[in-house]
Specification:
Layout: E1 10-16, E2 18-19, E3 31-32, H1 39-56, E4 63-70, H2 78-91, E5 94-104, H3 111-120, E6 124-130, H4 134-139, H5 146-159, E7 162-169, H6 176-189, E8 193-198, H7 206-212, H8 221-237, E9 242-244, E10 247-249, H9 256-262, E11 266-270, E12 275-280, E13 283-289, H10 293-303, E14 307-312, H11 315-326, E15 333-334, H12 335-342, H13 348-356, E16 360-361, E17 366-369, H14 371-374, H15 377-385
Parallel strand pairs: 1-4, 1-11, 2-3, 4-5, 5-6, 6-7, 7-8
Antiparallel strand pairs: 8-10, 9-10, 12-13, 13-14, 15-17, 16-17
Helix pairs in contact: 1-2, 2-3, 6-8, 11-12
């Protein structure tokens, strides 16, 4: 019998770590294998790890979301995607209206491949456009053109019930006027969801090396804040307000998968470098798998899983993780849940001071960052957690 969903929901993340090329800004666990991989063998290993992890759970709550991320999941054949979805359906009850998302790259988008994903059960696609002009796409190390990006998203909209795309802003040399024009065009293309990420320089990336050497100049903090404010204003005016600091949607159209993360639900992660938060043996565990695909595959063949960590999450850490995640949402966090998780209430005097400064609002027992507060979100979270 299906168990009730954990507070915040329950989701499955499936990691496909392979890409045709490594983007210079990307610090995700992605790998290039020029000789290709045996996709069906890899899908079988994902299923085996999923079976092993499902057997350990305290309950089998309904899955609200399955998310294929990467890497470039749109390099997977439809049969491999279908094999994983079928296993998930066998192991878990599916919640009504389950969201099954696959991340796609315009260079691997074609009608046949997309049709295979739809037949396998995928009902939402997130397309990584990243920019809508060729010069910036080249600077970002993307292989597709702006025309290919637009065509890929049009194809996604035609085949899937829901489709979203990503753009990166605060790019090298990007002016406020240029971003405003590009964002306006993007909103005209968009359906009911759009992800708009500020470019960050991540350690271990090619961009980090270039930035340290003075070869890559990105907008400074004030310029980036201006671009962020432009983003919020224009997207909201087009009916896609931010429901999370980098994600915009029409009412009720937020990503169910990512909402599980931000609402601090439970999620099971399978595949190389996948992370999870699952309840097993009466404890919330932080899980992580081997990052290297070949070592992960060997571990699954040997013992049925690639896990390298299953660590209990202390009550105080659960409360802090919940605060940091939920504060990203426009709806904010439930102050009573924070207290239940950590055994300690948010400080009333500190809340009052932050509210007086215009950094938070407190609607109906919740704590939400205001537009001013979102500009200093990390500092705000640290102040609330003191």
């Amino acid at each position: 019998m299906a168990e009730s969903a954990p507070e915040g929901g329950f989701a499955l993340y499936v990691h496909w770590p392979f890409c045709a090329a490594k983007c210079p800004y990307c610090d995700f666990n992605s790998h290039v294998r020029p000789g290709g991989v045996d996709a069906m063998d890899y899908a079988g290993a994902l299923v085996r790890e999923l079976e092993s992890e499902a057997a350990r759970l305290d309950a089998r709550p309904p899955l609200e979301s399955v998310f294929f991320g990467g890497g470039t999941p749109s390099l997977m054949p439809g049969a491999a995607v279908g094999r994983v979805i079928d296993a998930a359906a066998r192991l878990f009850p599916f919640a009504p209206g389950i969201e099954i998302t696959l991340e796609a790259n315009p260079t691997s988008a074609d009608a046949g491949r997309f049709a295979d994903y739809r037949a396998a059960g995928v009902n939402r696609v997130s397309v990584g456009l990243q920019a809508l002009n060729d010069s910036d796409l080249k600077a970002l190390g993307r292989w597709h053109s702006a025309a290919e990006a637009r065509a890929a998203f049009a194809l996604a909209r035609a085949i899937f019930p829901r489709a979203s795309f990503d753009l990166i802003y605060a790019r090298p040399g990007q002016s406020a006027a240029a971003w405003e024009a590009e964002l306006t065009e993007a909103l005209a293309l968009a359906a009911d969801h759009l992800s708009l990420y500020q470019l960050t320089i991540e350690d271990g990336t090619k961009f980090a090396v270039q930035h340290a050497a003075g070869q890559l100049i990105v907008p400074g903090a004030e310029e980036a804040a201006t671009l962020y404010e432009i983003t919020q204003e224009i997207a909201e005016a087009h009916g896609l307000p931010a429901y999370e600091i980098s994600n915009h949607a029409a009412p009720g159209a937020g990503s169910r998968h990512n909402l599980v993360y931000w609402r601090y639900g439970e999620f099971l992660g399978v595949g190389p470098g996948a992370h999870g938060r699952i309840r097993s043996g009466g404890r919330l565990l932080a899980t992580a798998t081997e990052r290297n695909p070949e070592r992960w595959r060997a571990a699954v063949a040997e013992r049925g899983e690639g896990l390298i960590a299953r660590d209990p999450v202390a009550a105080a850490d659960q409360a802090e993780e919940y605060l940091v995640m939920a504060l990203r949402l426009a709806e904010g966090l439930d102050a009573a849940r924070y207290e239940r998780l950590g055994g300690r209430a948010l400080d009333p005097a500190r809340l009052a001071a932050l509210e007086a400064e215009g950094l938070i609002a407190r609607p109906g027992g919740r704590v939400a960052a205001t537009p001013r507060g979102r500009l200093v979100l990390n500092a705000l979270a640290a102040e609330l957690a003191r």
